[in-house]
């Protein structure tokens, strides 16, 4: 494809659509308790037109966030739904559940799983377009955005797992991409969710990120972009909002960051995207997160550790954790008999191969027949959810792995 043209479109979308998108999100989430409705949700928008049965669900977390979920109970050919093993798909940072539906049906993982005998469940994290509801808070309240991925570990994933487990009365397979791998690994390391889990497939795994090579991400972290937003009183990190764009322009002016190729500057050189998938991506992504969450990720990049959110001083950390430094998530504490499938790429600038090796080293005592690492030299971060050849390269082996568990 004409990659330079696509990347220029991406830059234009980031730089000139902030006010329009900001207005849209305010209209969607300005009321307390608002959640995705079945007549304007992901099912009707993306799944139904492709000929699949799809049902909208919501789940409320213990701390009051109302999350959007979709269930695709079977493939286009129908069939008995009772014996189908459930699979939960969790997207990455600044994305939502449409991550898994960006490509045509024969290339989108969610629909491939449905066509291959699985009961598919999609979820969108708090703060994204379809998960902006809360039992008592508005998105205009600073308290609504007072969370990082620690809360996704503590509240979102447990609520989602419990909901799917209670609906299906089965243990789940799990698929995560990017931040969806980090939250899962952190949960598993604390012994959470494992009793409801059959196996997990982790695409572009994010755990250690201290050797990340993404110029855009590392420059943003090193220059405290998210901390600047917090200082300005901006609690929602809206990638298309004016405040983020102003700071992004400063980052783009720095050496080594070529913002005419913004996607590459962020993800690495993806090998196998086509223009239609990227255009569909631009219609729906990126999504909002909390500024606090972006600070947390930046802390990980700067420190090279996997710790809970650092409040910046011993007193505040003591108040939250009972100790002067944030507790660490210990990857070596993940149960050794948990079946894990990792897929990572040599061109991925976010999930760098050296960081993945650190993760692999931390799992050195894992049962050998329960651990698979799949490496694609030419894949970067977005390839794992949008590549034209992902079905053959990644998804077919992933499905085979699930069927063996």
From TrEMBL:
<dbReference type="InterPro" id="IPR006693">
    <property type="entry name" value="AB_hydrolase_lipase"/>
</dbReference>
<dbReference type="GO" id="GO:0016042">
    <property type="term" value="P:lipid catabolic process"/>
</dbReference>
<protein>
    <recommendedName>
        <fullName>Lipase</fullName>
    </recommendedName>
</protein>
<dbReference type="Pfam" id="PF04083">
    <property type="entry name" value="Abhydro_lipase"/>
</dbReference>
<feature type="domain" description="Partial AB-hydrolase lipase">
    <location>
        <begin position="49"/>
        <end position="103"/>
    </location>
</feature>
<keyword id="KW-0443">Lipid metabolism</keyword>
<feature type="signal peptide">
    <location>
        <begin position="1"/>
        <end position="22"/>
    </location>
</feature>
<feature type="active site" description="Charge relay system">
    <location>
        <position position="348"/>
    </location>
</feature>
<keyword id="KW-0732">Signal</keyword>
<keyword id="KW-0442">Lipid degradation</keyword>
<feature type="active site" description="Charge relay system">
    <location>
        <position position="381"/>
    </location>
</feature>
<comment type="similarity">
    <text>Belongs to the AB hydrolase superfamily. Lipase family.</text>
</comment>
<dbReference type="GO" id="GO:0016788">
    <property type="term" value="F:hydrolase activity, acting on ester bonds"/>
</dbReference>
<keyword id="KW-0378">Hydrolase</keyword>
<dbReference type="InterPro" id="IPR029058">
    <property type="entry name" value="AB_hydrolase_fold"/>
</dbReference>
<dbReference type="InterPro" id="IPR025483">
    <property type="entry name" value="Lipase_euk"/>
</dbReference>
<feature type="active site" description="Nucleophile">
    <location>
        <position position="178"/>
    </location>
</feature>
């Amino acid at each position: 494809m004409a990659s330079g043209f696509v990347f220029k479109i991406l830059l234009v979308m980031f730089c000139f659509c902030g006010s329009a998108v900001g207005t849209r999100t305010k209209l969607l989430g300005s009321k307390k308790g608002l959640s995705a409705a079945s007549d304007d949700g992901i099912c009707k928008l993306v799944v139904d037109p492709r000929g699949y049965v799809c049902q909208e669900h919501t789940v409320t977390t213990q701390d009051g966030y109302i999350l959007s979920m979709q269930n695709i109970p079977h493939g286009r050919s129908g069939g008995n739904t009772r014996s189908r093993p459930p699979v939960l798909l969790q997207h990455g940072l600044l994305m939502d559940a449409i991550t898994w539906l960006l490509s045509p049906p024969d290339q989108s993982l969610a629909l491939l799983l449905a066509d291959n005998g699985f009961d598919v469940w999609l979820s969108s994290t708090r703060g994204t377009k379809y998960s902006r509801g809360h039992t008592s808070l508005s998105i205009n309240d600073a308290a609504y955005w007072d969370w990082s991925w620690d809360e996704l570990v503590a509240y979102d994933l447990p609520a989602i797992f419990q909901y799917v487990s209670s609906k299906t009365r089965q243990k789940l397979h799990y698929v995560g991409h990017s931040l969806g791998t980090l939250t899962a690994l952190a949960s598993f390391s604390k012994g959470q969710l494992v009793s409801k889990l059959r196996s997990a497939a982790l695409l572009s795994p994010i755990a250690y990120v201290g050797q990340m090579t993404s110029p855009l991400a590392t420059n943003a972290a090193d220059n405290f972009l998210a901390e600047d937003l917090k200082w300005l009183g901006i609690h929602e990190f809206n990638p298309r909002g004016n405040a983020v764009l102003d700071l992004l322009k400063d980052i783009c002016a720095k050496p080594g960051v070529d913002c005419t190729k913004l996607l590459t500057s962020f993800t690495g050189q993806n090998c196998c995207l086509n223009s239609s998938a990227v255009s569909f991506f631009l219609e729906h992504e990126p999504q909002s997160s909390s500024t606090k969450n972006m600070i947390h990720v930046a802390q990980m990049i700067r420190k090279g550790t996997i710790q809970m959110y650092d409040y910046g001083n011993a007193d505040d950390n003591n108040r939250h954790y009972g100790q002067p430094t944030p507790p660490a998530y210990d990857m070596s504490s993940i149960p050794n008999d948990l079946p894990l499938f990792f897929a990572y790429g040599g061109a991925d600038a976010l999930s760098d191969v050296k960081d993945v090796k650190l993760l692999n080293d931390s799992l050195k005592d894992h049962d050998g027949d329960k651990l698979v690492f799949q490496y694609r030299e030419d894949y970067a971060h977005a390839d794992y959810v949008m590549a034209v050849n992902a079905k053959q390269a990644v998804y077919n082996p992933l499905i085979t792995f699930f069927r063996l568990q």
